[in-house]
Amino acid sequence: VMDPATHVIFDLDGLLLNTEELYSQGTNNVISKYGKNYSWKVKETVMGKGPMEVAKIMCDTYQLPLTPEDYRSEVKAQYSLILPGAKLMPGAFELVKHLKNFNIPIAIATSSTQQEYDYKIHNHKDFIALFDLVLLGPSDPEVKRNKPFPDIFSVCACRFPEKPIPEKCLVFEDSPNGVEAALAAGMRVVMVPDPRTTLNIDKATLVIKSLSDFKPENFGLPPYPL
Fold it and tell me: For residue 185, what are the domain limits?
C-alpha cells in the first residue's frame, strides 16, 4: 500500500468519456478530404495537448493546405456533430460515485475548450455534478502551458479548498502527455491507456486496462463496499 492519497484528479477525454475515438473520427473526416489518414503514431503524441498546438502539429505533419485556424474551424464543425454522442468509459461512474460517497475531493482537469466540453457532457450532467471542480486548460488564465507541462494539475490542486501537497494527489490519465504532466507536477498517476499506446507506460505509477480494475485501497483510499 502506498502513502494515502487524499485528493483525486481525473483527465476527461479517453479516460472518463470515450471522446478520444470521437476526436479521431472528426479528425479523419477532415484530413481524409486531403488524401491523408490519421495514424495512431501521431495521435499518441498530440493527445492532451492544447487545441491550437494540435492544429499546428496536424497541419505540419500532414502538410495540409490549411492554416491552423482553418483546420480548427473544420474540425470544430465535425466535433459539434460527433461529441454529443460521448459515452462514459467502463468503471468511470462507479469509481467517481464511490469516491464521492466517501467525501474524497475529486476534480476534472482537461485540455478541452469550453465549447467542446459543453458538447461532450451534454448527456452527462448528473455525472459531472459529482465533481468538486472542473478545470478547462485552454480557457484558464493560470494554466500557461499545456500537458506535458505540469501547469493544469498544479493549478487544479491549488483550487481544492484544502490545497493538498502534490504527493497527496492521485491523477488518472490515459495519454502519455498527461502522465508526463502529472509526474512533472510531483503527483502519482494511474494510467488507463488505449491498448495501442507505447509511450510513457513505463513511467506511470500504475497501469491498468480499465477504471473497473482500480483498487482504491492500494492508494489508501476507501475500498469498494463488499
Answer: 7-18+86-219
Q: Which residues are catalytic?
A: 11, 13
In a domain, 226, yes or no: no
Minimal CA–CA distance to 109: which of 80, 79, 85, 140? 140
Tell me the whole-structure pTM to 2 decimals. Answer: 0.96
Q: Are residues 131 and 71 in the same domain?
A: no
Q: How many CB atoms lie within 10 A of CB 195?
A: 5
Grid cell digits, residue 215: 483498487
User: pLDDT tens digits for 165-218?
Assistant: 999 999 999 999 999 999 999 999 999 999 999 999 999 999 999 999 999 999
Residues 69 and 102 in one domain: no
Cell of 117: 466540453
Residues 6+ apart with CB under 8 A from 101: none
Task: Tell me: do 94 and 168 sit in the same domain.
Answer: yes
| Amino acid letter for position 118 | D
Find the CATH number of the domain harbouring 206.
Answer: 3.40.50.1000
Q: Which three cell numbers stand for residue 147?
A: 500537458
